[in-house]
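Ticket #263: bound-state structure for glutathione.
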Amino acid sequence: MATSFLSLITFSSIDNAARDKIIECFLSIKNMTQLLPVKKIIFLTLGLISISQSTGQNLAPAIAQNASLIPSEFTQKQSDLLLYGGPRTRSPLVQWYLEELAVSYQYISLDIRGQEQRQPEFLAINPMGKVPAMVDGTFKLWESGAILLYLTDKYGKEPQSIEERALLNQWVIFANATLGPGLFREDRREREMPRLLAPLNDIFKQQPFILGSELSVADVAVGSYLYYAKLGLSLDFSDYPAVETYLNRLSKRPAFIKTMGQR
Ligand SMILES: N[C@@H](CCC(=O)N[C@@H](CS)C(=O)NCC(=O)O)C(=O)O
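RESOLUTION: The complex was predicted; output attached.
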């Protein structure tokens, strides 16, 4: 909870004096162990109003803008997992998988245009300054594919063998290293699209998901790139009808609608 709240303060556009006062206020309230959470909220609200008056700064916009950073105790959502993303980025694909796995998490949306991803606080999480990035307890991880595979290992159905796990790696790496560039890089698209989509079409003619009858992390990785390409680049997949059907199937899933579908 403290991490989330301090992130809220750190990423808010308020001045340092106000920020220090808020942190001081938050920490003193947090340490009042005898107080019920609801009373803590009341105290914190009163504290923020008084800081707002004493510093002459209106804190409401900063807090409203960062509503997603409100810590778990306040939202009654118990989760140590923080996912950092931003508008018009690929972070919804990780959200999609978190929703499929029913893992509780807090989503922190960075202002990418405002370069929040280049601020020291975020560079301490991902020194490359890119989203998505994840913090699970004290563990930090970035690169969407690595995050997906971590989530599968921690929360997904256990692979039966090294070979089964290797197939998940294969598809996640394929999505990021081959399919993504093949569809999104204009200089490659004409040559790569038929080479990549025809075999995918053959797979989906045989089975509903990449590895058979059930959705796996492979579908989240591959399906999201196909979806981004179709939606963002208006690519015509009509030569690959089984791929179209596959995308329709994915896009009807509640976890998809809640995340990718909101993009
Ligand atoms: N291969 C990385 C790509 C990460 C990436 O390029 N993220 C973009 C958003 S989709 C970003 O953070 N851009 C901001 C920047 O480069 O400053 C992954 O899959 O996570």
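RESOLUTION NOTES: Strands lie at 81-85, 106-109, 133-136, 139-142.
TICKET STATUS: resolved
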